């Protein structure tokens, strides 16, 4: 059966629903099918050749019959719409855009499915998950997390150091040691549970959680330390195993060399064998872990069984008297020896707690990390914590040998004498037995000693194996993110599980280096601080994300508290310093250096970190608090709105504006598009690329664009709506338009909005848009000319650009973009000069002067801006020279007045010049008058020679032209501009930069073209010149 449906355009689309339903049933393996979900929507749309009623024949995209009973392009919610671009875990589907749904229906020839180049994205979120169908090993929460965490926590400490810890601290403080470790790990486990349930978790363990929460700076620094700590942990566990083996060799008088060297030899051989198991793959490693767990459980049970068996005479001679309450009470208090303290003992024990991250470290190999990590980790903490307390109390309370062992060589021997044994000889001879002298005491306590030895082997080897797997996988995830480019070599994986073979080799080298130390007590405190730093950041990540109140922070695990996480972070930091203050300082020093390195390098990643969220919250809060305070003249700083067009089109304008604002003021580069319907897609696409261009060029500025029907509306919108609260532009900066004579007429008056105005003129020009290549990530594959921007700003009265360039000019531009040799020599030379001048303000300025012609008091902006320039590094070799207009006969008095004013303003200058000949007419030598007349002639009305009626008609027909009456009324002001240009050429021709007070014209009295002619005449044939006019509100003050 067939079903036909007619779409909105009258297109007949026929679908074979029966076949479709069968395919859907097969693909779902017979499971329930959501009737509102159409699997065909995940596929690229099929475009059909269709004949319309008006005989039009074109390709159209068919609509779909939705669950709503009518044809629509709208889609029902689907997970594929939310996948990352380039994701290999599933094909990303692109939902219809707002324009597709809202705009007038038109042919759309774009695939709905984003294609990938076939390579995985650098972002781990887009990495291909392991698929069991391809033979990769995936673990559930028991084998993947619970078993690994228990094996890692039941490590070397359980059989080798637990008795030593309780011998030093007594069972009272010994319990505190265990509980304090459990408090740290439990809080960290809760924080980790919240973080890992707040989105998809990929490979990388603690590094992944921290980096995706706090950002690459924190993640990159702690990731390297954490991977290194795991590598060192391999050495710690292997040395524990080697100690047990060497003790057996000593017992059977079979030492190879001496105890310390035998530990090194056995350790190196062991780590080689473990490396072979790890390289063989996760499947072999998992099987080995199960076998080791069985042995370990049997050994733990053996300890409890051994406590219930009555002590033999041999055991009693070594201080084991089975359960005795007197010994238990005697054993309650601590007996620290050899310089040990509570915190040094805690430092030795705490590495046992580091096993809580064993499951998280292989997060990339878990079937469902979000569910497995919280459940397995917290349950492992509970089980192992109870086990440690049970074993310790059982040996300390039920088996009195613990206290007796401790008291073999110390205190009184009355209790031992009560049981018929005299250990007083231990006062003069070294003891071979006792909690603090015999690390293999658990073997004697147990029911069957060899099982404890096997359990010790199992505990140490399983922990070493887990760390040997964890370190390379965390390191591989770090290298894949390419935060440290030199380490990208280690990102490559091999085999079906993407095994980090190179990382295994590196971990092997590091562990061997630490095994050669051969002393477990030396190694343990080193990694304690590294792991505590990781725990601190995991806790802080949870607190930070909660504090930011970001809508994206929605962890499925609800049993956490942000303040508890903060307490956990602070507790970890305190414990770090208490354990070993110099190691803590070293750890933080390394972390800070790595943080600074990553911050400076600025890796090209964006993970939506809580740091970004907190920065946003702080910015909004600061902006709101700033809005409640009135502006004060002492805090005035230029906040500049720069009309550059596209951010890269006018480099001198942007560079100079950036010199004014730097990191201390607001700078917004703006572009006006129009009309709306034609340019909205282009404008939206350019927003991000222009902002990225500013970031890459280290320009501390924002980019803003508007689309309006005409240029005037767009510019006025920018002037009125730009900024936020007190962070609002107060100065408009524009470029002088050289071709103002051929431009259309569309003025915008910045003074209406009380903006100060700054205009830059350079003889070579400012706009390089016809030379530079378009800023686009795919430019290399799509070299094409880019139309010039629709807004080309000239002055406070701004004019739109001339008509679009001819095909011939576009042809020239295209070839110039590709090869300079194909451009005519004259144009190439002009472009070369233009490009050279465009970088004028990027480089350090040579020794010279900034000449400030402060002719009119505008509130001080004309003086403040050049002073700000002299505080910048690029302009520090330039001296200020002040020029003022003075009355004839009182030049010296005017100079002293200005000198006094500058002194009160605390602005230094090298010279003050008083010009008292500005009022005279322009000199014939410069031909200024003739040049000016030729400039304005095309815009004059010439109504003087006509009769009155004819003249009035001409004024109505051409109201924008310059009348003879207007020219006569403003003759003096016209002459002033020409005379000023002559004086400027005489005094400031060699200046690095000239700053001149901008003339102002009354609205309705001076025509636009006459005003533009004044500006042109004033700034012609000069070095780079800035025309400045403040808004006549004081920006300088001499009051404190």
UniProtKB/TrEMBL annotation:
Regions that span the bilayer: 140-160, 172-201, 221-242, 263-282, 288-309, 342-364, 376-396, 501-520, 526-547, 559-583
Domain Amino acid permease/ SLC12A: 144-641
Topology in the lipid bilayer: Multi-pass membrane protein
GO cellular component: apical plasma membrane
Catalytic activities: K(+)(out) + 2 chloride(out) + Na(+)(out) = K(+)(in) + 2 chloride(in) + Na(+)(in)
Gene Ontology terms: biological process: cell volume homeostasis; chloride ion homeostasis; potassium ion homeostasis; potassium ion import across plasma membrane; sodium ion homeostasis
Domain of life of the organism encoding this protein: Eukaryota
Family: Belongs to the SLC12A transporter family.
Protein name: Solute carrier family 12 member 1
